[in-house]
Design goal:
The complex is a heterodimer of chains A (114) and B (112). With 114 residues, chain A is mainly beta. Chain A has strands at residues 4-7, 10-13, 19-25, 31-37, 43-50, 53-57, 64-70, 73-78, 87-94, 104-105, 109-113. By secondary structure, chain B is an all-beta fold. Chain B is 0% helix and 53% strand. In chain B, a hairpin with a 4-residue loop joins strand 7 and strand 8 (71-76). Classes of the chains: A mainly beta (114), B mainly beta (112).
Chain lengths: 114, 112
């Protein structure tokens, strides 16, 4: 069974569109994350949720809105997509605070905005 | 949370050789984690080493931590082509942050 799954794996869309990426974990973890990895492989934290509560919201445009309907899911909705949003987005989860526990990553969603 | 800086940025070796990559960080930490990322995949956790530990092993992996120099190293012994990946360190300072910050990683290429 996949521990952390994301859908879709690839997403190609045009500027100005709105899209969502879904993430689910079946590990019973309390904390979930969204990361963005750009073309230079730099992996940056975007959001962190603990027990469905937003804990960290880094300097991310408010076009990005995470939604956590329950502890096992953390979805990412992006409005008015821009070329600079093209990247690979990773969802991750951990049992508790990131530094104290290992993180489990999903396979990533490659977003291409044209 | 602070991020680590991996060195070298790229490393190319032959199968059977050992690979060493380093990580430096700026402030005191509670622990430090190493992750591997195969091309096109998510990160996979390798080892977590706590600030009161100096060395930790996992199979062919050996991680050392020198808190006085604020540095860590990851040694992969008897490397295999399957070890080809990017390796990231993530120091954790025990602040209120709920996330890890990753550097640009070391890109390791192991050729047969």
């Amino acid at each position: 069974d996949t521990a952390v799954s994301q859908t879709p794996k690839y997403l190609v869309t045009q500027m100005g569109n709105d899209k969502s990426i879904k993430c689910e974990q079946n590990l019973g973890h309390d904390t979930m994350y969204w990361y963005k990895q750009d073309s230079k492989k730099f992996l940056k934290i975007m959001f962190s949720y603990n027990n469905k509560e937003l804990i960290i919201n880094e300097t991310v445009p408010n076009r990005f809105s995470p939604k956590s309907p329950d502890k096992a899911h953390l979805n990412l909705h992006i409005n008015s997509l821009e070329l600079g949003d093209s990247a690979v987005y990773f969802c991750a989860s951990s049992r508790g605070r990131a530094g104290n526990y290992e993180q489990y990553f999903g396979p990533g969603t490659r977003l291409t905005v044209t | 949370s602070q991020q680590g800086e991996e060195d070298p940025q790229a490393l190319s070796i032959q199968e059977g050789e050992n690979a060493t990559m380093n990580c430096s960080y700026k402030t005191s930490i509670n622990n430090l984690q190493w992750y591997r990322q195969n091309s096109g995949r998510g990160l996979v956790h390798l080892i977590l080493i706590r600030s009161n530990e100096r060395e930790k092993h996992s199979g062919r992996l050996r991680v050392t931590l020198d808190t006085s120099k604020k540095s860590s190293s990851l040694l992969i012994t008897a490397s295999r082509a399957a070890d080809t990946a990017s390796y990231f360190c993530a120091p954790f300072a025990g602040d209120s942050g709920y996330a890890l910050n990753f550097g640009k990683g070391t890109s390791l290429l192991v050729t047969p």
